[in-house]
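Re: folding output
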Amino acid sequence: MLTVKIICVGNLKEKYWRDAIAEYSKRLSAFCKFDIHEINEVKLPDNPGEKDISKALAEEGRQILKIAQDARCKIFPLVIEGKMQSSENLAKMIEQEAVMGTSAIAFVIGSSHGLCDEVKKAGRGISMSPMTFPHQLARVMLCEQIYRAFSINAGTRYHK
């Protein structure tokens, strides 16, 4: 069974976001081993400079890559410059990874400042949209799209 992880910076404070994630986690358990790893966002000063931000992103990146490497995950960072995917293409991508023998994949969501170059270069970048979303909403949307992808691959009626 394929392991699917979401590695993300920050945590969900509001109950309604946690409830939505719990629902998709429950649904995904029929298709894959699914989990979410949250890492703490590195604290920045009130008016951070580029050097402060770069240093924070590098530290977050080290943590992200360690989690992904320890779990032997193929990485898919969510980045604005990544390739936009339709639901059907995401389903094909996940199916191809499973067929090729990949045992674990990780989708990575960075902080409000994004991801460091090392994380971006470590995998195949995906863009959800040219629009910007709150990270909590992006996490829920990603969970839904992963569930939709598995539903498409299973031939269920969820995706119409």
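--- second protein (sequence, then structure) ---
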Amino acid sequence: MTRYYLTVLILTCLLSCATPNRIVEKPIVFDAQRVALTKAYLQDRYGLKGESAEIVPKMVVLHWTVIPTLEKSFEAFKNATLPDWRPDIESVSGLNVSAHFLVDRNGKIYRLMPETIMARHVIGLNHCAIGIENVGGTEALPLTRKQLRANIFLVRYLADKYDIAYVIGHHEYQRFEGHPLWLEVDEGYRTEKTDPGDEFMKKVRNATKKYNFKPIPKK
């Protein structure tokens, strides 16, 4: 990693990542290769040319990993490039998927990367979105009450730090097509998502009403 980007990451954490006791730092690999791939993603997918991989957060997107353990979920995000089992999106970019936070099934919160650096977690909106991943999410391994409480805590924490306008589930992202925040240049690049579901989002929104988040666009 160049001295410039190392300085950016350190300053980002020092200046904008005041860490509550509930958040544990567990950084993924963010080396020169990942920086270059992230910058290329911003330019190729969104037409955003710049010298850094920084974003201005405007929304929070909630996800589930489907992977049953914290260790395996972290491993999926850790490296800079996509693993062999993601050929469905590799043709778009070799940048690995990631998120800013990962919530274990016991509700423990891990920060994987600075909140103002782009993570690849939601088509069309990565340039303005903070991602929260939750371990599990299959029918046999539904998200837990502790994860719900952790997500509510994180949404409140992020809304107190940034000018967050929207809180959405990953399954709702396509409703932003045509919205000013939507920047994906390829009309054919979409994936169908179900996470984390309407019921989970309803509970999160009910618990964070005081922030007056904007309603997501109608279908």
